[in-house]
Specification:
heterodimer; A: Nucleotidyltransferase, domain 5; Nucleotidyltransferase, domain 5; 2 domains; 5-stranded mixed sheet; 10 strands; about 40% helix; globular; B: alpha/beta; 4-stranded parallel sheet; 19 helices; 8 strands
Chain lengths: ~260, ~425
């Protein structure tokens, strides 16, 4: 019997960042992870992130028993790999992290996705947000830029809000001008951010309800790093939200698990 | 960028030889209207499924299906100037995009005193009348009311009955049929005034006979499509429907469907499938087709997924009007009533929704592995209720379902990357279910 350790990689090539996760065959435990900004060249970035994760684990490409790529840029991978949709990868990644989870909300840079998953980590139903920035991380980027706040700070700042601003629009472009108006009126950045989070949470929650959300619920993607957004979504849905320690790695983790399952 | 990349790549590769002949038939619709005008004939803006097709044929009025023109514009990616013209005239982007294209076309025609240059298929001839109907949705008569801004021609709207699901049809049937007959009688009086000629009952009967025969053949063709592998995909359906709707009541439609029937029967008997290795059979559940991107059906096929049947545009199975009916107008009224109520009994007995009942039957008969819906942003009639239908369907079947969102003709509502991402996940769900 061959007891040699085998490694499997998952690479998630997204619009904002590219993440790679390496797992060991034994117990499918995470051996290493790496994440870099996508930049303008998916091919180079994908190569770089894979080399980075292999280097961290101290192994070479030849030690890999399988690779799965996922995300919007999966086709750009410069190495041989099986492609799997990020929806299936998120489902599998969340099952690995939170076996009790039955609904996953993934808030990425381009789209938000809601999926209902089976106990085996299969996708039972899913929906993507419409062709609209309001339901995506791009919305937060726009508002953070206007407020001159770092993306990493918006969550904690939002949680300090006492009177969240009511946004009268569901459009990111109009919300931008509305934000400027609110700033001119003297609204605090915390209240504006809390208002944005509420508006996004309403939109995201609608998606979750349309896939007939079942508890427990996990939130992944860049949106999971925003504690204000996570709380707003939890409040709107009336449930506790499970968030991975590194929310932007869960699709890559799922991809690695699927590579191991081949 | 995405949109530019897809220029010239809108059409789908067809599965049957007969479907490839439809393009010429569609061109001829618009050519016939121009020729009729030159010969002093009458041309009418019309709406399909208004139940009045045979009346127009019996009176030698050339129907000009304005919705189809919008589809042609989208398939050729020549819709933007018409959409933008309508929006410049004040029509909201949330209004029916078929209507916006038609209104934009007529607005440009009025502005330029003639058919806009390089209009697809030669553009729509100036109509002598506009015939709206309440069938399917309200833009199908509001559109022609609005077009009165640009066209000084008479219009007539026909009401098409739509009894509620749980109505006691035994008690109310005669009322509905009498009312429908009055509607058709009113239309005939209007058309006789416009043409200066009386309608011949004999010609109406002949037109009805031809229409019923074409629709019967179409139904038989769809029954052949239960075969595995699929002998004819949905992209063909969205072409071959032209014969039944735009050539209703003509020998052309009958001959076309006879030819298609023979071809599909041969393919089914010889297991000549749409793709070499059919892995998944898909039901097109609801929503108008994405005329701007019909090649998407071929994209599904690249994964071995074939759309084997659809619940759009062939809205009725054949019905049997009592042989005691001797008046052709009464026959049309009866047929209308029977068509629009043919799923009521099954719906009352189970889900309460005729649409769901039909989909469930199709899913079983055609052995489908999944259902795809298309939500069209500007088509309330085919989109409102889709989520409800999907959820209701989910009570009776566990096959994967997916809803794609765009519009039937407005490309601004379409995102190729989003669709491909969704389709990838859907195919994986189909594969996972097959693995068990």
């Amino acid at each position: 019997m061959n007891n040699a350790i085998r490694y499997f990689a998952g690479v998630d090539i997204g619009s904002v960042s590219i993440a790679a996760v390496l797992i060991r065959s034994q117990k499918r435990e995470m051996a290493a992870s790496e994440m870099i900004p996508s930049g303008g060249n998916y091919k180079d970035a994908a190569r770089k992130v894979l080399n980075g994760v292999l280097s961290k684990a101290g192994i070479g490409v030849a030690d890999l028993a399988g690779i799965v790529t996922t995300g919007l840029g999966a086709e750009s991978a410069p190495f041989p790999a099986r492609q799997v949709s990020d929806i299936s990868c998120q489902a599998m990644g969340c099952r690995r992290l939170f076996p009790q989870v039955r609904t996953v909300i993934d808030i990425g840079g381009q789209f938000t996705k809601a999926m209902r998953i089976t106990p085996e980590g299969r996708v039972a139903d899913f929906l993507m947000s419409e062709k609209c920035a309001t339901g995506s991380g791009r919305f937060l980027q726009v508002i953070a830029r206007i407020l001159h706040v770092n993306l990493s700070e918006i969550g904690s700042l939002s949680l300090q809000s006492e009177t969240p601003v009511e946004f009268s629009t569901n459009c990111a472009v109009f919300a931008e001008s509305e934000t400027v108006s609110r700033i001119a009126e003297g609204a605090k950045a915390a209240d504006i951010l809390a208002g944005v989070h509420r508006a996004m949470a309403a939109k995201v929650s609608m998606l979750a309800k349309r896939v007939k959300m079942e508890t427990e619920v996990a939130l992944t993607g860049g949106g999971g790093e925003d504690t204000g957004l996570v709380q707003a979504v939890g409040d709107t849905l009336g449930v506790r939200i499970w968030v991975p320690e590194q929310p932007r790695l869960s699709a890559a983790l799922g991809a690695a698990c699927l590579a191991a399952a081949d | 960028m995405e949109q530019r990349e897809q220029q010239g790549k809108t059409a789908a590769v067809k599965g049957t030889d007969m479907a490839r002949k439809v393009r010429g038939m569609v061109k001829n619709i618009y050519q016939s209207a121009h020729e009729a005008k030159q010969a002093g004939g009458k041309v009418a803006y019309s709406m399909i499924m208004s139940q009045y097709d045979e009346i127009l044929r019996a009176m030698d009025i050339v129907p000009l299906p304005t919705e189809n023109f919008a589809g042609v514009c989208a398939a050729k990616r020549q819709m933007d100037r018409f959409l933008l013209q309508a929006e410049a005239d004040g029509y909201s982007q949330s209004l029916c995009s078929y209507a916006r294209i038609g209104l934009g076309f007529d607005s440009l025609r009025k502005e330029g005193s003639g058919i806009p240059d390089n209009s697809p298929d030669g553009g729509m001839a100036m109509p002598d009348m506009m015939l709206g109907s309440s069938s399917v949705c309200d833009p199908r008569y509001k559109w022609f009311q609005a077009a009165g801004r640009f066209l000084d021609v008479p219009r007539y709207n026909v009401d098409v009955v739509s009894p509620p699901i749980r109505a006691n049809l035994e008690d109310t049937r005669d009322y509905y049929i009498r009312y429908q007959k009055e509607q058709f009688r009113g239309l005939i009086a209007f058309l006789e005034k416009q043409t200066g000629r009386k309608m011949s009952d004999d010609r109406l009967w002949e037109s009805i006979r031809l229409c019923d025969e074409a629709w019967r053949l179409w139904y038989e063709i769809d029954r052949l499509r239960v075969a595995v592998p699929s002998p004819m995909p949905s992209q063909d359906h969205f072409s071959i429907m032209a014969a039944a709707h735009y050539y209703a009541g003509t020998q052309i439609a009958v001959d076309f469907y006879q030819g298609l029937y023979d071809e599909v029967k041969y393919k089914a008997a010889n297991k000549n499938g749409v793709v070499p290795d059919e892995k998944y059979r898909i039901l097109y559940g609801a929503g108008l087709p994405p005329w701007h991107t019909l090649w998407i059906f071929n994209y599904f096929e690249s994964f071995g997924a074939v759309f084997v049947i659809e619940n759009v545009y062939r809205a009725y199975d054949p019905v049997e009007v009592p042989s005691s009916v001797q008046d052709p107008v009464e026959y049309l009224a009866w047929r209308t009533f029977l068509r629009v109520t043919q799923w009521h009994e099954k719906a009352s007995a189970r889900s309460g929704n005729p649409y769901v009942e039909k989909l469930l039957e199709m899913a079983a008969d055609y052995k489908t592995d999944g259902v795809v819906f298309h939500a069209c942003r500007s088509c309330r009639a085919s989109t409102l209720g889709q989520t409800h239908i999907k959820n209701l369907l989910g009570r009776y079947t566990d096959i994967p379902m997916m809803q794609l969102t765009s519009d039937m003709v407005d490309l601004r509502d379409y995102s190729e990357s989003q669709w491909k991402a969704q389709i990838g996940a859907f195919i994986e769900a189909l594969a996972a279910r097959k693995r068990g």
